[in-house]
Amino acid sequence: MGFRSLEWLDHGALRLLDQRLLPAQKTYVDYTDYHTVAAAIREMVVRGAPAIGDTAAYGMALVARASQVETVEALRAELAQADTVLRASRPTAVNLFWALDRIQRVINDPANATVAEIKAAILSEAHAIALDDANVCKQIGLNGLALVPDEATIIHHCNTGSLATQDYGTALGIIRTAHEHGKHVHVLVDETRPRLQGARLTAWELREQGIPHQVIVDGASGHFMRRLGVDLCVVGADRIAANGDTANKIGTYNLAVVAHAHGVPFYVAAPLSTIDLKTPHGDEIEIEERTPREITHVEGVQITPDDVQVGNPAFDVTPAQYITAIITEKGIVYPPYEINLRRLFDLAEAPSA
Ligand code: MRU
């Protein structure tokens, strides 16, 4: 790909591609402090569950690098403050918390006993998180390959590609892998109101990759399934509860219900870092409510009457009953998810023979 959603610069800065400006402008912004990194996550300069996690980890590396303190206790106190601010940036994608938990483990690891050791360990853990993201996405793409028939028409919602991760992406990674393996695919790209991640970002990525696609409005999926035939839907996830209920971009639930009504397989593609076994079901997932302005204005122009009441949840929860399978880097999981997701983690954690 001719871009990186995020990149660590050795002189101690985090470079983010400003996704709010795509596809019109490819602008990179360099960050050197965690407050602006947290704001970049909140304002969606960077977005997509895995990319948010990677960014937060590097946000902690910025704190470590800039710190002037001389004791481990003082460094830990500075890092704790940054951790709190970064955790508050967006509530739904569990990858944010997962990545920050990984950094916390390194901070508290007795093996890192000096200021210099903690600083070095945080940066190397942030690099490891980003590298894992890239490798895991590649494997998700390969694992999903068998589910994509040749000549498939596929509906995709939001953006789950290189912009949302490192390199391949999750749901879009499966589509890209199928394309690279010579399968002819045609993607119906949900525009994804209100932030238009589909129309702006997914269409841009698919174009860069030469994958045939068409942007459709979110409400058109039923029409396409009924009139033209759709072979599968594949979407990403921000958090998957222990029972398989899946939080993803608003509109995913509608798509899943329509797919169910038409007998179209509905797949969720996500890394294990998006599966939250501590959350038993989807009703317990916090749904981010965003500013009304995202609905009332398009490109700065007000499209609604003055003072209209707006509801703007950024995500919804698709009940597990509508999900045909969950595609992870460790394999494809089918219902019953309560049992099979847990089994997947047990297998992933088991020492290899
Ligand atoms: O609000 P966004 O753009 O961060 O929402 C992104 C999504 O809903 C994606 O589908 C999800 O994070 C998976 S990205 C691999």
CA(first)-CA(last) distance: 37 Å
Mean pLDDT across the residues is: 97
Helix content: 40-55%
Percentage of β-strand residues = 15-25%
Oligomer: single chain
Mind describing the biggest β-sheet?
7 strands, mixed
Derived from helix and strand composition plus strand pairing, the structural class reads alpha/beta
Report on this structure.
With 353 residues, the protein is of the alpha/beta class. Helix 1 runs parallel beside helix 3 and helix 4 packs antiparallel against helix 5 (115-144). It has eleven helices and 16 strands. It has helices at residues 34-42, 49-66, 72-87, 94-108, 115-144, 171-180, 197-209, 221-227, 252-261, 293-296, 337-349, and strands spanning 6-9, 13-17, 28-31, 152-156, 185-190, 213-216, 232-235, 239-241, 246-249, 266-269, 275-276, 297-298, 301-302, 315-318, 325-328, 331-333. The longest helix is centred in the middle third of the chain and has 30 residues, at 115-144. Strand 4 (152-156), helix 6 (171-180) and strand 5 (185-190) form a beta-alpha-beta unit. The model has no long low-confidence stretch (mean pLDDT 97). The two termini are 37 Å apart. Strands 6-5-4-7-10-15-16 form a seven-stranded mixed sheet, sandwiched between helices. Strands 11-8-9-14 form a four-stranded mixed sheet, covered by helices on one side. Helices cover 41% and strands 17% of the residues. The protein binds 5-S-methyl-1-O-phosphono-5-thio-D-ribulose (MRU).
